[in-house]
Amino acid sequence: MIKKLQKLFSSLIVSSDANHLVDGSYAWFISDDKKLIGILKTELTDKDMALLSTFLQPYNTQFPLPTVEEEKWKQIVEKTDEPTDITYKAPYRFIYFSMNPNQITPSQFKEAIQELFSREVPILWQNSHEGILIEEQSSDVETISYDQIIDILMSDLYVTIKFFVGPYHEQYTHAQRHYNMLIHGAHTALAYSKKSVVTYVDAVPIFFINEANHNIRSNISETILQEFIHDGETLKMIETFLSCNLNISETAKELYMHRNSLQYRLDRFYEKTSIDVRKFHEAMSVYLALLAKDEK
């Protein structure tokens, strides 16, 4: 095939190393046998590009060359029917990540991520700063937390990154739906949350609030928060109390506040609203009201 293409396109070159493809004047493609084929863009018409793309995979040189495993996952999440050549392995989960643009190249990010895991982690890129990690559950290897990964990437590479961690799934049958829902859910969850790592479980209340219309959200926040709706100091105290799992001592330490002062402020909120955030169900209502107040 390559010899036939060379007769049509005199500038055609072949490479086996994606790490050295720096010439932006070439359009690059991947053949079925994983060879990289480059043709000068000036030699290609739009019709040529469309035709070549039917039997060659277009390749963007800013991304690392996809592995066999990544190609399989790409096939899974882009097609409705489950591929017949996929071997079932351990439960898997999708993890969305988002970095500030132009902080690090996709190749550098992939290299850094692979060093943090005991096995290869497939990455499906959305663009140069967003993508999906695919992690398999393992009982014999201690898994690094995504908070730790953020700390390492920040300290070593000065990369600001956020993760939305999806739940584990047993089967591949609905992987495409799980994949698409995770991406949509990640954009919603990370827009509401101030945390750098948000799990699917964390995001469930966010999804419910996001589905409510503007009038319902406004009513919830105004009814629950009442006169404190614009009291930034009190709202920060309550947010911290909720994030500390309703633990008085931990919250006081986090806010550099005496326990008695914190107790007094919680009592004052209760006196004014008749809502006791020290009780789980009432705290949940306040949490939803805070999310509704910060609607995106």
Give a description of the structure.
With 296 residues, the chain is an alpha+beta fold. The chain folds into three domains: 58 residues, no CATH class; 139 residues, Reverse transcriptase/Diguanylate cyclase domain (Alpha-Beta Plaits), CATH 3.30.70; 80 residues, Orthogonal Bundle (Arc Repressor Mutant, subunit A), CATH 1.10.10.2840. Helix content is 48%, strand content 15%. It has a five-stranded mixed sheet with strand order 6-7-5-8-9, sandwiched between helices. A four-stranded antiparallel sheet has the order 1-3-2-4. A hairpin with a 2-residue loop joins β6 and β7. The mean pLDDT is 86.
Integer count of domains = 3
The secondary structure category is alpha+beta
The CATH topology annotation of the largest domain reads as Alpha-Beta Plaits
In round numbers, the mean pLDDT is 86
Count the beta strands.
9
CATH architecture of the largest domain: 2-Layer Sandwich
Largest sheet features: 5 strands, mixed
Strand content: 5-15%
Number of helices: 12
Please give the share of residues in helix.
40-55%
Radius of gyration: 25 Å
- Elements, N to C (H/E): HEEEHEHEHEEHEHEHHHHHH
What is the overall shape?
elongated
List low-confidence stretches. Answer: none
Strand order of the largest sheet: 6-7-5-8-9
End-to-end CA span: 52 Å
The CATH H-level homologous superfamily of the largest domain: Reverse transcriptase/Diguanylate cyclase domain
Name of the CATH class of the largest domain = Alpha Beta
**Oligomerization category of the chains in this entry:** single chain
